[in-house]
Amino acid sequence: MLIVMNHNANQADIDAIIDTVKDMGFTAAPIPGSERTAIGVLGNHGYVDDSKILEMAGVQRVIHVSKPYKLVSRDFHPEDTIVDVAGVRVGQGCRPVVVAGPCAVESEEQIIRTACFVKKAGADMLRGGAFKPRTGPHTFQGLREEGLRLLALAGKESGLPIVTEVMSPDNVGLVAEYADLLQIGARNMQNFDLLREVGRIRKPVLLKRGMSATIEEFLAAAEYILAEGNEQVILCERGIRTYETATRNTLDLAVAPLIKELSHLPIMVDPSHATGKRSLVPPMSLAALVAGAHGVLVEVHPEPEKALSDGPQSLTFQGFESLMEEVRRLANFLGYA
Ligand code: PEP
Ligand code: MN
User: Fold this and answer.
1) Where in the chain is the domain with CATH 3.20.20.70?
2) Atom 3 in ligand 1: which residue has the minimum CA distance?
3) Domain topology for 2-63
4) Is the pTM of this model over 0.70?
5) CA pair distance 21, 26, nearest whole angstrom
6) pLDDT for 71-83, tens place per residue?
7) Residue 250 CB burial class (10 angstroms; 0-12, 13-18, ≥19)
8) CA angle at residue 259 from 72 to 31, to 5 degrees?
């Protein structure tokens, strides 16, 4: 429930509402706005009787929010959230960011070469999996802590903040020691213990959409992180499973503008996992930015044909360089400084 105050309501009116909400057994979250204050009501598990509130001084109206998310919604938080990843700002009004790197960290040479190349070409962050959520157990599972160490080394060498996936609640502390941005992968979007655990740290989180998740489920998953106190969340559309098999997944680009209507959190797009095909990554990266995404996440490998995972969707160095030229041209056209 959201209690919207009149623009001339005073502090005493607001305090009285907060006390009443508390007396009803709920938590009150005041949301000051430029025009008027609203007060979010948290902690209810169903419809709340609003008759008492509606009679109180300064109240304009009450909005019943029936969605399973509140803290991530625009109703509760009208201003855009900007997430700061070790100095790189992500969100509305910021220049679109490009996160690039291999699917997995494979060796010191591979990750440092890639880091230095993508940095030179204009990437804003370096990605690389150390804990890999692979479909089958007989494939490369990642270098684990050694992978984190190598990724951090490459981040230092190149000067890029680093992004890597955390798969289990037990490893959140370890991954947070190395990563600037912790990724929750599609397969773990509804791992609620993991979501709660990253909600308790003070580092930004990149939450990928589950492969069969609705937008409501996606936002409800983000709500778990915010509910634990971590508001530094970037959402990421990475394609969903449909009947189509010509592409690895189906990129649901309408999510970018839709999320911006529903939520204040930044939204990025991963065209690599969405399409599974190198040739489709550049056009869909540009399409994502035109659709209003705050950035893209793309896989890049020095020798994609030798990659231990996701080679077919990884850009070559040359492919990445030309994508960056197009991204720069587009960002300039869209008016970013
Ligand atoms: C990845 O980013 O390498 C990855 C495994 O992505 P997703 O969780 O979207 O499949
Ligand atoms: Mn991958």
Assistant:
1) 83-333
2) 103
3) Alpha-Beta Plaits (3.30.70)
4) yes
5) 6
6) 999 988 999 999 9
7) middle
8) 35
On the CB side of 282, how many CA atoms lie within 13 Å of its CA? Answer: 16
Q: How far apart are CA 45 and CA 302, in angstroms?
A: 51
Q: Which atom of ligand 1 has the smallest separation from the CA of 127?
A: 2
- pLDDT (tens digit per residue) in 98-137: 999 999 999 999 999 999 999 999 999 999 999 999 999 9
Q: Say how far apart CA 255 and CA 261 lie, in whole Å.
A: 10
Nearest CA to ligand 1 atom 10: 186
281-337: pLDDT as tens digits: 999 999 999 999 999 999 999 999 999 999 999 999 999 999 999 999 999 999 997
Domain ranges in the chain with CATH number 3.30.70.1140: 2-63
* Domain 83-333 in this protein, CATH class: alpha beta
- The closest residue, in CA terms, to atom 6 on ligand 1 is 185
Question: Which ligand gives the minimal distance to the CA of 308?
Answer: 2
Distance CA 264, CA 130 (A): 30
- Closest listed ligand to the CA of 314: 2
